[in-house]
Specification:
The structure holds 3 protein chains of 3 kinds.
Chain A: H1 2-27, E1 37-41, H2 48-62, E2 70-74, H3 81-89, E3 96-100, H4 103-111, E4 121-129, E5 132-136, H5 144-153, E6 159-163, H6 168-180, E7 185-189, H7 192-200, E8 206-207, H8 211-219, E9 223-228, H9 245-249, E10 257-263, H10 269-284, H11 286-294, E11 297-303, H12 304-324
Parallel strand pairs in A: 1-2, 1-3, 6-7, 6-8
Antiparallel strand pairs in A: 3-10, 4-10, 4-11, 5-8, 5-9
Helix pairs in contact in A: 4-12
Chain B: H1 2-26, E1 30-31, E2 34-35, H2 39-66, H3 78-98, H4 100-114, H5 120-141, H6 152-155
Antiparallel strand pairs in B: 1-2
Helix pairs in contact in B: 1-2, 3-4, 4-5
Chain C: H1 2-15, H2 18-36, H3 42-53, H4 58-83, H5 92-141, H6 145-158, H7 167-182, E1 184-186, E2 191-193, H8 199-202, H9 207-224, H10 239-251, H11 253-268, H12 273-287, H13 300-315, H14 317-323, H15 329-340, H16 348-352, H17 354-384, H18 390-409, H19 413-430, H20 435-458, H21 472-483, H22 485-500
Antiparallel strand pairs in C: 1-2
Helix pairs in contact in C: 1-17, 2-4, 2-17, 3-4, 3-15, 4-5, 4-13, 4-15, 4-17, 5-10, 5-11, 5-13, 5-14, 5-17, 6-12, 6-20, 6-21, 7-20, 9-18, 9-19, 9-20, 11-12, 11-13, 12-13, 18-19
Classes of the chains: A alpha/beta, B mainly alpha, C mainly alpha.
């Protein structure tokens, strides 16, 4: 009897640390990367997505937010389709993440690439990008209404420059056309900076550049923004004087572009959690705050089911607009 | 020479037809706002087909006239060329399994031994150190990950 | 002018601080390395270092990034000359004469000539950057799609003379180049072309991968025909080569400056260093009295493209800091770097961050100057690589080629493409399909088609837009004139001949 007691006591003594250890590792069992993290950019070097990814990567290493380095890789083929398909193909690999813009929706819809954002794991929405309606500063237009009235007089004569084809710039052009009953000739270019310069050189009549793409030309007095294409003004010192579409033209209109992060499909909850936390910490750094305001972005961190819900809504709107503009892949 | 010439001409013709095929799908008319996206491929394809037909005719005419054929490559040239080509292809195929650096090490070692008849010491040293230094340079310093193949990640432990 | 000099002096003060100078040297060495390695270009080098640069002050950071670019500009031609493998896209044209010259045993001389031409291109580019930046920027603004298309036509027409013996095969090679360029996304319509649903094909055919295969591997196959050895290349750079190179350079002042000017012009208008080097080569050949020597190791065939490449590379800085558009892919990445520092490239940069801009301009001076001496000092080292035994050198070259092909897009399929292009390169050479025009078509195909279709949208479908004064019209006319020059000169001879008779 006594012996048995001793044995059980001994077992307890021996078991205790084991239990402790298992408890300890249980709480610290949060997943961490064991290999370098591949950070895919579904766009070429130098563009908006590229700059942002290359900005995030050093923040992660500076604040030691991940135990392994982040390797930035461009996979730009087919308007980003190559990058998306790569992540889709690396199911269950927790060491892959991808930065995306609205090409997440537009590329598969316009090209018929067998891909949908549900083929990846949504991690977080980092920010939203504004659009403005820009004209050359030497033109007499003061409001969007004045400009669009002129466009209405000669359908198809006014040129709208934008980035890529069947992507956000063209979608916004379609929105404008439908809201105001006008007709533009849309001219696609390779990148936003190029588009802004074409406007300075008066090769096109207007653009819907992002704030960051045209800010320098604006401040140099070569371009002027007629309106912010959103229901609210941009809440940043430099930008808050630009009227909204409603104020400038009388018609409410809004289009904001996603800047979000996804991971490979089929990763575990813990793995997803790691990336959510890591990116949360990125958006809390002072560098990030400065980047947001320098580039005229809307700080809009969103994650979890809310993010998924937002994505669903955004996809619906995008598809709708593209269908109206006849931009969907023709069957 | 003639055979190779015909093969390349046919190769261009096939590409020409592929282009034509896809151009028809994309539309190759002069649309409202300039050419549709298949217009260029259409004429490229057409041009390639015409060029290869012309080439084939020239080859045929030349054959009729001369009757003999110049050699594509000098006598005995095929062997050394294959000695370069086959191991290179081999290296790329092995890369799929063990990654580029290890495959290249094997390739280097094989070549130095079989073609160069270089001593084992040098062979081993070179075929180890060259991939190692390039591995460190690319994968570690420049952070340009090179192909790891199926098992490369396991084989290189650091 | 005086104000510019003052500013430059201030900038030099920044660039010559010991710390910045050290950073510049590190950047140059890295740049030369990425320049030498095919497939790893200035853009990769810069992109890789951006995370490192973020912690530095902006001026120091941009000095590091741009130094990598200067180094890569210098370094790209080394492998072109020694192995017929262009280290960078803009050194493709250098292989046409650089490699034949090296095979004649004058590798050292060819290297020296190339570096010196680079230095001259750099000087012209930097002078324009320092004193004419705002003025040139205004001219660059006048370049819309129609004007860019006319420049493309000019480049093509400069290359008419580079065909092979058989006109049909030349045309076939050019069409093949265009066809490869057309695979993938068509940005004007947003449609995928010739991909047949394959994700692999969506990425298209990268020009660098094709070039590594066609030139590099193709050349190895040609060399080993005689047996598994490389012979005849003397891999030494002697003092005499440097002196001879300098003397030779003085014999071609026209070629040299034409190259540099073409380069600067193409760097400012968004053409870039690669078309610039081709165009300069084409024009040098057309305007040369002994154009038959081209392709056999003519000095002018090295001088023109090299001066143009570096001129374009240097002046590509100009549209970036004045307009906010990158003149080259590398500049695009550097521009990304600036945005990380919170500096928005464009017209306000000069006004709001003058110290930064002049620091950058000064570093162009300093970087290119030090870079020149650095490559000259390294030249014997590079040339010595040729002394390595064939059985080691050949597999090592193929290894590096494979790395290069892979690193372009991080795709394994590119390595297979490289092998296929290698075999094609060998067959093309044997069967008289000229490779140079094909490569040019592959490089410019997309750009030319895009510009043409953008212009046509603007002109509501009317091709008259290409003949719009004041810029497109003259360039287009010159292009057409050069294009039809063989025909025109034929008529002229006939007319004159008849008169004589």
């Amino acid at each position: 009897m006594k012996k048995a007691f001793w044995i059980s006591k001994l077992t307890l003594i021996f078991l205790f640390p084991v239990v402790l250890i298992s408890l300890y590792t249980g709480t610290a069992n949060a997943w961490e990367p064991t290999k370098p993290i591949e950070f895919i950019i579904p766009a070429g070097a130098g563009g908006g997505a590229d700059v942002m990814a290359r900005f995030i990567a050093p923040i992660i290493s500076k604040y030691k937010l991940a135990p392994k380095p982040v390797i930035v890789i461009n996979k730009s083929g087919g308007a980003g389709a190559e990058g998306f398909m790569y992540v889709k193909g690396n199911a269950k690999d927790p060491h892959v993440m991808i930065i995306t813009l609205d090409n997440l929706f537009t590329t598969p819809l316009a090209t018929g690439v067998p891909f949908n954002w549900r083929d990846m794991t949504p991690v977080a929405r980092l920010a939203l990008d504004y659009f403005n309606l820009w004209v050359n500063a030497e033109t007499p237009y003061k409001t969007a209404k004045e400009y669009l009235d002129d466009v209405k007089k000669t359908p198809g004569k006014f040129l709208m420059g934008g980035t890529g084809s069947a992507q956000e710039d063209q979608i916004i052009t379609v929105m404008l056309e439908q809201a105001f009953g006008v007709k533009f000739s849309y001219v696609p270019f390779k990148g936003g900076g190029e588009v802004a310069v074409q406007l300075v050189g008066k090769h096109v009549n207007s653009t819907v550049n992002n704030p960051a793409e045209a800010v320098s030309q604006w401040r140099a007095g070569r371009l002027k923004p007629l309106a912010t294409i959103d229901t609210e003004r941009i809440n940043l010192p430099l930008w808050k004087d630009i009227p909204t579409m409603k104020e400038s033209s009388g018609v409410d209109m809004s289009y904001l572009m996603l800047r979000g992060i996804f991971a490979a499909p089929g990763i575990t909850k813990e793995q997803q959690e790691f990336y959510v936390n890591m990116l949360k910490k990125v958006t809390e750094t002072p560098e990030w705050q400065k980047y947001i305001s320098d580039n005229g972005l809307k700080s809009a961190y969103l994650t979890g089911p809310d993010y998924v819900k937002w994505l669903e809504e955004k996809e619906r709107i995008t598809k709708d607009l593209m269908a109206k503009g006849n931009l969907l892949k023709k069957k | 020479m003639r055979k190779a010439d015909i093969v390349i001409a046919l190769f261009f013709m096939v590409i020409g037809f592929v282009l034509l095929f896809d151009a028809v799908r994309l539309g190759f008319q002069w649309g409202v706002t300039g050419p549709e996206s298949g217009l260029f491929p259409f004429y490229l394809g057409l041009g390639l087909v015409v060029c290869s037909l012309l080439t084939l005719r020239t080859i045929y005419a030349k054959y009729k006239k001369d009757g003999y054929d110049k050699l594509l490559m000098p006598k005995g040239a095929l062997k050394p060329i294959l000695w370069v080509l086959i191991p290179s292809v081999g290296m790329v195929v092995i890369t799929e399994f063990v990654g580029l650096h290890i495959a290249a090490g094997i390739f280097l070692g094989f070549y130095m031994r079989s073609v160069g008849k270089i001593g084992w010491g040098t062979t081993l040293m070179v075929s180890f150190l060259v991939p190692l230094s390039l591995y460190i340079a690319f994968d570690k310093l420049f952070l340009v990950p090179l192909p790891q193949g199926l098992w490369g990640g396991i084989l290189i432990p650091f | 002018m005086l104000a510019d000099l003052n500013n430059l002096a201030m900038g030099l003060g920044i660039a010559l601080e010991p710390y910045n100078l050290m950073i510049a040297c590190i950047g140059l060495i890295l740049g030369i390395i990425v320049g030498v390695l095919p497939g790893l270009g200035g853009a990769n080098g810069v992109a890789i270092l951006i995370p490192v640069v973020v912690v530095m002050p902006a001026t120091t950071g941009v000095i590091l990034l741009s130094s990598i670019y200067w180094g890569a500009l210098y370094g790209g031609s080394i492998t072109s000359i020694l192995f017929n493998i262009p280290g960078e896209p803009w050194s493709v044209a250098t292989t046409f004469d650089g490699y034949p010259m090296a095979r004649k045993g004058r590798a050292g001389f060819a290297l020296v000539l190339s570096f010196m031409s680079h230095a001259v291109g750099a000087i012209v580019g930097v002078l324009i950057l320092t004193f004419l930046a705002p003025l040139i920027a205004e001219i660059a603004l006048k370049f819309g799609p129609a004007e860019i298309f006319s420049v493309m036509m000019l480049t093509f027409s400069a290359f008419v003379g580079l065909g092979g013996k058989s006109p049909v095969k030349t045309v076939a090679a050019i069409l093949f180049g265009f066809s490869l360029a057309a695979v993938g996304m068509d940005i004007v319509s947003g449609q995928l072309r010739m991909t047949f649903g394959s994700v692999t094909l969506m990425g298209g055919f990268n020009f660098i991968v094709a070039v590594i295969g066609l030139f590099g591997l193709g050349e190895i196959f040609l060399t080993v025909e005689e047996g598994l050895k490389v012979e005849g290349i003397v891999g030494r750079v002697r003092m005499r080569d440097i002196v001879d190179g300098f003397k030779e350079l003085l014999l071609y002042p026209k070629t040299l400056f034409m190259g540099a000017i073409i380069g600067c012009w193409m760097g400012v208008t968004p053409g870039g260093a690669t078309p610039a080097s081709f165009m300069a080569y084409g024009f040098a050949k057309e305007s040369s009295k002994n154009s038959k020597e081209f392709g056999q190791g003519a000095s002018a065939g090295i001088i023109a493209p090299e001066a143009a490449a570096h001129g374009a590379g240097t002046s590509a800085t100009l549209p970036m800091i004045t307009l906010g558009i990158p003149g080259s892919p590398t500049m695009a990445v550097i521009m990304g770097g600036l945005m990380i520092f919170g500096l928005t490239p464009g017209p306000m940069l000069f006004k709001e961050h003058a110290d930064f801009v002049w620091g950058l301009i000064a570093s162009c001076w300093v970087g290119n100057f030090i870079g020149f001496f650095m490559v000259m000092a390294f030249a014997p080292l590079f040339a010595a690589v040729l002394k390595v035994r064939f059985a080691i050198l050949m597999p090592a070259i193929i290894y590096v080629c494979a790395i290069g092909a892979y690193a372009v897009n991080n795709r394994m399929i590119d390595v297979y493409y490289m092998l296929v292009f290698g075999v094609l390169g060998y067959l093309f050479k044997k069967l008289d399909y000229p490779i140079a025009p094909m490569v040019l078509a592959l490089v410019l195909g997309n750009m030319a088609e895009q510009a043409m279709r953008q212009a046509l949208i603007m002109g509501q479908g009317s091709p008259l837009i290409f003949f719009q004064p004041p810029i497109a019209l003259p360039i287009m006319l010159v292009a057409l004139f050069i294009f039809f020059w063989p025909v025109i000169s034929g008529w002229k001879d006939k007319l004159l001949g008849k008169k004589k008779a």
